[in-house]
Amino acid sequence: MRGAGLPRRSDPGVRPPAVLHARRLGIDTSGEHVAYLRADCAVCRSEGFGTRARIALRCGARDLVATVNVVLSALLEEGEVGLSETAWAALGVLPGQAVELAHADSPHSLAAVRAKLLGARLGAQAAAAIVGDICAGRYADIDTAAFIAACAGRRMDLAEATGLTRAMSAAGQQLHWNRPVVVDKHCVGGLPGNRTTLLVVPIVAACGLLIPKTSSRAITSPAGSADVMETLAPVALDLAMMKAVVEREGGCIAWGGAVSLSPADDRLIRVERPLGLDSEGLLVASVLSKKIAAGASHVLIDIPVGPTAKVRSAQAAARLAARLAGVGAALGLSVATLASDGAQPVGRGIGPALEARDVLAVLQGDPAAPADLRQRALLLAAMVLEMGGKAGPGQGLALAESVLAGGAAWRKFQAICAAQGGMRTPPQARYTEVLAAAHGGRVLAIDNGRVAQLAKLAGAPAAPAAGLELHVRLGSAVDAGQALLTVHAESPGELAYAIAYAQSQAQLVRIGRPGSPGAGRSARI
Amino acid sequence: MRGAGLPRRSDPGVRPPAVLHARRLGIDTSGEHVAYLRADCAVCRSEGFGTRARIALRCGARDLVATVNVVLSALLEEGEVGLSETAWAALGVLPGQAVELAHADSPHSLAAVRAKLLGARLGAQAAAAIVGDICAGRYADIDTAAFIAACAGRRMDLAEATGLTRAMSAAGQQLHWNRPVVVDKHCVGGLPGNRTTLLVVPIVAACGLLIPKTSSRAITSPAGSADVMETLAPVALDLAMMKAVVEREGGCIAWGGAVSLSPADDRLIRVERPLGLDSEGLLVASVLSKKIAAGASHVLIDIPVGPTAKVRSAQAAARLAARLAGVGAALGLSVATLASDGAQPVGRGIGPALEARDVLAVLQGDPAAPADLRQRALLLAAMVLEMGGKAGPGQGLALAESVLAGGAAWRKFQAICAAQGGMRTPPQARYTEVLAAAHGGRVLAIDNGRVAQLAKLAGAPAAPAAGLELHVRLGSAVDAGQALLTVHAESPGELAYAIAYAQSQAQLVRIGRPGSPGAGRSARI
Lengths: 525, 525
Description:
Strand content of chain A: 15-25%
Shape of chain A: globular
CATH architecture of the largest domain in chain A: 3-Layer(aba) Sandwich
Oligomer: homodimer
Number of domains of chain A: 4
Number of strands of chain A: 19
CATH class of the largest domain in chain A: Alpha Beta
Mean pLDDT of chain A: 89
Strand order of the largest sheet of chain A: 1-6-3-5-4-7
CATH superfamily of the largest domain in chain A: Nucleoside phosphorylase/phosphoribosyltransferase catalytic domain
Number of helices of chain A: 19
Largest interface: A-B, 93 and 94 residues
Structural class of chain A: alpha/beta
CATH topology of the largest domain in chain A: Pyrimidine Nucleoside Phosphorylase, Chain A, domain 2
């Protein structure tokens, strides 16, 4: 009897160490750490592990928390613990290496998630604890889903968003530059084809500003800037390489996921994407934490506004702009925003390689290059040049124009690609199919969401050549049978899915019949 | 070119049917349907499936939606699709049988979950759609987590809770009895050891009322009534057997999960449990949907109130009681509630077998039987007897007493156990350890949550003999070294975990030193 010196009714003895041998099962669980345990293994029995239990795994200096899946078959040998791909990588084990297992409590920071769901505010310390637990892989996917739900919509105030942004920016690696001015740009997305990053970076860098740009892969869209850039050059730079590229060329277009700037963001996005749940607070923290970690002093944020864009009204854009500026100010980051026209997709291509071709056309001064993409990029570059002190107020546009038209931006882009590992040619899809107008008339509306969905069904962004080309713009006059868009796919199955979807969506491209301008009669294509 | 008769630039041809052969992988994913696909399989490539994709699987007349895990190893042969245990069972396939695969969109009802998270009300139709999708296995665990988060705390009003309750009760099987009065009872839980169901059912049934009781297994507690009953008799009755037992004996104590009454509830609980997130609306819908589906006309609900119970204040209990009565009234169910003393655990044992022994002691008239458990059960039985018209107002307690003291309840309990498949003896744990008071004094507080946690760490409810015996009650005078509780475990590892936890929790049992009554000085045991 403990504490009293009386004899115990039984003695548990010394607990045997819970050790199993690592087995890589090769199962990609999309990021969640999963440990597979035999139902009959001695460790499982004596430790009381069951499916959905959380267990701590340790091997050498590395540890993580995993969700248990119990294996009832002969998938594992006796004495083995199976690991999912991310758990295998995070633990850094070799096949057969000994792994120690122990009970893991539910992370303490989940109490703050529950409290936030029940209406409490999210304090700065709680935010830091949550971010720390997420980065350490202690959140199961359902825990992360609950946190995202707790932050959904506009449920975070300025102080909460600031605390979360600070915690996220501090959680990973951070870049420091010996320059008073380091610029950056970002687009909150929702507008297919809006690939201005690949133009703004070379224009701005050609003018001598430092712009260490990291981009994300697609979250819910058919292509992120990193996906597009990857069809032109390697983007998975490590921090040292990214630093070297920026120091040599003044700019880069790297994949943020590879450099571990704000690593919590990537883990959140992994669950946000399939949930399809937006959060203003998470959006602000996602954007600004990466900029702060990248060492930026001045950031320009493009907020496309339109009836089918991510941001639907000027009011919503103004609110988001104020929130971004407010959080930025609280964290010493100068944030400017631009509410841009988000009524229709930008450029011609939607999908990684197709968007890359639009970018190349603009850089190379091709007269057939999409004028809207060119104009948007010039405007953003102009604002960045003025923010960064390279042009006086109102002088930025002329400078940006001259750098683009004179070929300096194109040369700089090639130099950046070379520095990132070598320029390459975007792939071409093997399967394409044209969709035509069922009747003539004028294009009244193009639905950004449905266009994005169509490109995704065609295979973008996982299939880089997949997507679509839009052959019309708002206001275009079309004849019956005229090509509206071309779907590109890398497999027949994906092409068939995309075509079936396009034919079921009357609102994809809305064509008004001649004689009834603006009547909005939908035309199935 | 479709719709225009122009030649296509390429022809996708006829899409090959996406068919793979079923392989049971024997992986228990805790209910989520998971389909394992080889990364290099032709179907995977041509259909564009990747990890976290949702795919529809069909085999004969059965279908389901599963989350994809991509397999990068040789776990699967070419042409195979691996299935998790629940997916295997739900699809009802044989090894090697052909399974058709197709893209599955995110379920439409998720839009209502998102809207609810963003502040919209949950309409009755939306609730029905969500419940339907959950029952059909179309929600991934993260979707279910988001729905639970959307309903967290008090975020559902009366109409929302009513709509959800109706949808849940209508979603599964339903029982109908040819009797105007069918009674039931329920406890909202949070009080370890409060195992009155196993006493109320035989008392009430012995008096001639119909009480078709289904109980749940533990959600976040060390034992549910189904877990306790299972140590005494089989509880996994199908609907026909449950009906037969009730028609013969007037009552049963069956596991609700086996009869598919309100099946959405079990799927919600599977995610609620590890999330540890409470929702008033989900609680009301969970309780009442099962009662309605079981055909009850009158239900008594026990709401234990105490500083460490699930319901912490009289105000919260009154609110919950009003919500339960309101939803019941809207759905034609007469609901009475009893706010009971929830200051400390009930009875002596905590854990399935240990609680079963307390129940047996009460039924058998053992003078050492826990008086508090006996008294609570009598009070509840009395109210049910009065609600059901077997006793006039104020007469129920005497009737209940006589039935219990006279042995009729014990005979009825044995008859019910026999009808359910045969009575058995609760198991005895192999490992036990006594924890003693570090100093003498009076017991000032017993923490329900910590006591429950201790029993769970000892292995309850998965290990039915595990848990603990409490040797003291609030107000007990103890000497230094006197036994406070005995931990029971089925494995040394679990015993060690539980003991380590108990020693770290000064608040588990609080003992005031003599001479400072009520001072609340905590005593580590």
